[in-house]
Design goal:
There is one protein chain. By secondary structure, the protein is an alpha/beta fold. It has one domain (5-132): P-loop containing nucleotide triphosphate hydrolases (Rossmann fold, 3-Layer(aba) Sandwich), CATH 3.40.50.300. The chain has 4 helices and 6 strands, in the order αβαββααβββ. The protein has helices at residues 5-16, 35-45, 80-85, 88-92; strands at residues 24-29, 60-64, 68-73, 97-101, 115-120, 128-132. It has a 6-stranded mixed sheet. β5 and β6 form a beta hairpin. α1 packs across α2. It starts with a helix and ends with a strand. The model has no long low-confidence stretch (mean pLDDT 87).
């Protein structure tokens, strides 16, 4: 349970500290649930000092931490083909950590060992963050 943006970020940071090369984090949640906030903590936990921003319009942001970090936002994508054309499968199979917002749009492309993060709640509601995998 997260009652603030800071707590959501802290949950992401704790997960990020545990991740290594090849990890895939699949984020799912409503618009405004706090996915990007969670990612900001996640990349901090992976050792970057840069504040993550949502790649909604560029689709992929890259960060340098203790491993390369690939932050993908599938919100504006229309098809699996479009995501594959972006090189998503190469990112997933690489040496970095791949973080995917709106991962429910590309479920067939996710590896079996992906870590699934579901954030429920919007607006002033407390967030329930479920992590499995």
């Amino acid at each position: 349970m997260s009652g603030s943006a800071e707590a959501t970020e802290a949950a992401g940071e704790r997960l990020g500290a545990t991740l290594g090369p090849g990890a895939v984090v699949a984020l799912i949640g409503e618009l405004g649930a706090g996915k990007t906030c969670f990612v900001q903590g996640l990349v901090r936990g992976l050792g970057t000092t840069v504040r993550a921003t949502s790649p909604t319009f560029v689709l992929v942001n890259q960060y340098r931490g203790r491993v390369p970090i690939h932050h993908v936002d599938a919100y504006r994508t229309d098809s699996l083909t479009e995501l594959m054309d972006l090189g998503l499968l190469e990112l997933i199979g690489g040496e970095g950590v791949t973080i995917i917002e709106w991962a429910d749009k590309l479920t067939p492309l996710l590896p079996p060992d992906a870590i699934h993060v579901h954030i429920a709640g919007v607006g002033d509601e407390p967030r329930t963050i479920t992590i499995r995998g």
